[in-house]
Task: structure prediction
Amino acid sequence: MTESPAEQQSGEEAAPQPHPWADLATERCELLRLSPLPIDRHTGVRPLRFVELGRVERHSREQSLLRLVIELPGQKVRKEQNLLEVWADHRSKEVRFGPDGGLQLEPQNRGLGRFLLAQGIAWAKQRWAHYRVEGGALPAKDALDNDARLRRDHVLKAQGFQVNYLDSLQLKASYGAGRVSELHGDWHREKVQWVGLQEAAAMLEQADQNLQRQDVAIRNLEERIAVYKHEDGGLRFTIACLVVFALFQAGLLIWIITR
Result:
């Protein structure tokens, strides 16, 4: 049985349309330095890394949006990972932190969670500190591992959010806050640092100088090894001659005795 044109039209009207800001590409990128940290028993080795922070924002009479994206050089992540969105609704005077699936960060346990939240909070406080904070449910998958749950709660509480559990197993939880002005815009600056253009250029220049010094040191070592090999060859030849001479002398002595 086929649908009438009117039914098809009503079905198309009922289908939710994506928000016009849903697929915005980042417009400004900055470099971040993740400091090397001791090995963690859950997340493993935490070496020095450099990542890219992409940023885009939009404003209208009804809403404003800030989207922050962490890009990992040479590594791809899922679309919902390394993403923080801050939506400001000017009609209800509320600010919502997203995405709804929660912060999914890679690499983990490097201070990126607090850093992203701090940037979003600072952006909202600068404009709408009197707006209310819209709370929400926390994903249950973040509470399957006790250490991951504790890290998540610590990050939220450090930024001024409240975490409330809805069951004794601490699987269902929600977060919230009063107003934007009550949130904190600080983070572990010893873990995550901005890298400015001049600083990045200086680091590249220093790295190039180190490579040149290493090349010179390697060439010197190769020259010394070549000299040692030449001397070793001469010593081997001398030893071989001495062995031949000794054998000749021994043979000559035996011939004289037997005569």
Remarks:
- The chain has two domains: 21-195, 196-259.
- The mean pLDDT is 86.
- Helices lie at 5-14, 112-128, 146-158, 197-258.
- The longest strand covers residues 49-59.
